[in-house]
């Protein structure tokens, strides 16, 4: 076994471990369809200069659409290292300069400055986020969740057929 082989193996194991960790504590990586992102942002009535937080930003597509097409200030958190790197490249190639994308765990971030929170996560993650939303989000903050509802909250609106459901909540 050569040294370079061992180093590659160690790097692979670390990256795979970090990726698995983010999938385990939040949600695995799946893309929200572009059409669903646009519809969700319209549903939330996202306006220029409003702050949109994407919890689990994936490949950064929602950040790109929110900034380019809606003029929003965007903030994203992504914890899977390879997906984070892909998002960084996507932002770069789309000429997105103002977006703030962090390689951070969203459970540990302060969400109080968000006007709109976007998420496509899992049942487990929504349950874990609920008390955080209740504690940190300001009255009037909107939450748009693709596919997963917030248990115990009544959505203001639900639209279907994208192909999943889009839930809109307001604090
Ligand atoms: C289903 S994907 C959604 C990606 C993107 N928001 C979209 O809609 O296309 C969920 C993403 O959340 C990330 N994630 C899961 N738990 C996380 C955490 N605690 N902090 C940051 N990112 C997390 C995963 O790595 C994955 O990329």
From TrEMBL:
Provide this UniProt record's keywords sorted from A to Z.
Answer: Membrane, Methyltransferase, S-adenosyl-L-methionine, Transferase, Transmembrane, Transmembrane helix
List, for all copies, the residue spans of the domain called DNA methylase adenine-specific.
30-113
Q: Which CDD domains match?
A: AdoMet_MTases
Q: What is the organism of origin for this protein?
A: Candidatus Portnoybacteria bacterium CG_4_8_14_3_um_filter_40_10
Q: Does the keyword Lyase apply?
A: no
User: A single GO molecular function, which one?
Assistant: protein-lysine N-methyltransferase activity
Q: Which Gene Ontology BP terms does the record give? A: methylation
Report the transmembrane regions from the record. Answer: 6-30
Name-wise, this protein is SAM-dependent methyltransferase
Superkingdom per UniProt: Bacteria
């Amino acid at each position: 076994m050569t040294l370079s082989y061992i180093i590659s193996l160690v790097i692979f194991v670390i990256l795979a471990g970090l990726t698995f960790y983010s999938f385990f504590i939040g949600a695995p990586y799946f893309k929200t369809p572009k059409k669903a992102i646009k519809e969700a942002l319209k549903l939330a009535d996202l306006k220029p200069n409003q702050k949109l937080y994407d919890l689990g930003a994936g490949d950064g597509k929602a950040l790109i659409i929110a900034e380019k097409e809606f003029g929003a200030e965007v903030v994203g958190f992504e914890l899977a290292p390879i997906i984070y790197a892909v998002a960084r490249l996507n932002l770069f190639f789309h000429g997105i300069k103002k977006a703030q994308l962090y390689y951070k765990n969203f459970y540990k971030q302060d969400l109080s400055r968000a006007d709109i929170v976007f998420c496509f996560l899992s049942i487990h993650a929504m349950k874990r986020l609920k008390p955080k939303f209740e504690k940190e989000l300001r009255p009037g903050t909107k939450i748009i969740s693709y596919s997963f509802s917030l248990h115990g909250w009544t959505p203001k609106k639900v639209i279907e057929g994208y192909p999943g459901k889009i839930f809109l909540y307001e604090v």
